[in-house]
Amino acid sequence: MVASNPMYSSGMSLRKKFLATVINDIWPETLFFSAIATMVAAVSMLTDHKLYLNNGLLGVLGTVLGLVISFRTSSAYERYSDGRKMWTNIGTYSRTLAMIIWIHISNDRPAPPNGRAPTQLECIIEKKTMINLVQALSVSIKHYLRGESGVYYQDLYPLVCFLPRYAKGGSTEHDLLPMWHASEDGEFPLEHNPQRGPGSRSNSTNTMTSNYKEEAPSTFFGSVRKHHKTFDPEKVLPVVEVHRPLKPSRSPPRAGFTDYFPFLKIFKLIAKPFRKSPGSQDVDMRAVLGKKRKPKPCDSNVPVEISLFLMNYANVMIRAGNIPAPLAGSLVGAISSIQDTLSNLERIADTPLPFAYQAHLRISIWIYLLALPFQIVSTFGWLTIPGTAFTTFLYLGFLEIGQEIENPFNYDLNDLDLDDFCFMIQRELHEITAHPTPDPSEYVFGPSNQPFAPADRRTAQELIQANEAYTHSDHGPDSRPGSHSIQRTLLKGWKAVDSSTRK
């Protein structure tokens, strides 16, 4: 799964580049129209019957269909581009939300009525936990857009497992909150009073890691394992106990031998009644005729549930006066903006083009391609066959490209790399919380800071030690100390930078 064009990615194998094309989507139709062209050319060239049609409308209809297909592809790419913009917004809002929580929510809080004041460690733990929920929010959006319901995933469950599961005062399955109720499927009953050790795992199936792998450039049938390395992003997540095996962080449909030669799937279809049902839950990437399988819609909205906890935290901090009033609106606004972005992503994922438009366009192309051999056989002869095949590949290829990229959140090689977006957000949130938020005076007046460069290259420490009333000898004998001299230094710096940075 790549965000850039896989055909020009040096790290992709030839087999992945093949699967990234739409050849498997259009080969049955290309074969069908090529057979029609073969029949027309054979009858016209080998018999006395001439299957000719007037080609007067050929150019006009071809131009019209070309414009309509171009509009179809452009509108689909606009959805693809909008999806990328929305994920950029999620990253931006997540950073903003994390910065406000980490920096502006106080660690020194007064004691509430009839209670004790939280310690600094408790405040930091609280804020880091909420920032982890911000990370969980982006991960849950990824699974939601892919039609993967629930929270039992290796990259999501460790971030949300501490959230309350039952309504206050309840402890049965009837009291489960919506997020957990939608996640339970009855296959692994929820333990109400599990005996769990801290930081332990129940068995090997619950391991919070997955076998992500990055491969060096490979041949069509195999990869070069010389530069192989393992990519394991789940190993940095919390180690927690869970009553059921967790699903992989990503579950792309497997690509088998018949995905490269889809016409062989007919034999699998014939042999299916005689085979035992496999234990694996893997799903073929393509249907019998090569069409990509689409994921089922998701029936639980985990991102909304996580947003409720974040919004509730913002409400508690605002009511307790632990965040400055001007920034309280920014905190709530960042959460609301992520919700607005999620709504736009839902619009892209759940709103296909109207069926009537797609059906009318495909039927028009089919009629045009059916009539094409009859109109060009008198001019091209036997070349009618490759000409029809190429035209079919061209027209239907663009049509399938538009259909594939109109929902760019799945596992197709041309879809957006949602996993990489989530990893980027995860890295940035941890980078934010790695800063201890010191007082600026601890680093501003150090020996490495030259605030007035290039006009005055003395460090801040030297400037303070030299004289409280700022003077600079480069200004000449008429230089006056104090703010006038500082302004002249800043003006000199501006002139130096302005002249040095212009070509």
From TrEMBL:
Q: What is this protein called?
A: Bestrophin, RFP-TM, chloride channel-domain-containing protein
Q: Where is this region: Disordered?
A: 187-211
Q: Which domain of life is it from?
A: Eukaryota
For this UniProt record, give its keywords in alphabetical order, as a comma-separated list. Answer: Cell membrane, Ion transport, Membrane, Transmembrane, Transmembrane helix, Transport
Q: Which GO cellular component terms are attached?
A: plasma membrane
Q: Which GO terms describe its molecular function?
A: chloride channel activity
**Coiled coil (UniProt feature):** none
UniProt xrefs under Pfam families: Bestrophin_2 (PF25539)
Its main subcellular localisation, reduced to a broad class, is membrane
* Compartments, as annotated in UniProt: Cell membrane
Membrane spanning residue stretches: 26-46, 52-71, 365-385
**Record membrane topology:** Multi-pass membrane protein
Q: Which InterPro entries match?
A: YneE/VCCN1/2-like
Q: In which organism is this protein found?
A: Lentinula aciculospora
Biased amino acid composition, Low complexity: 202-211
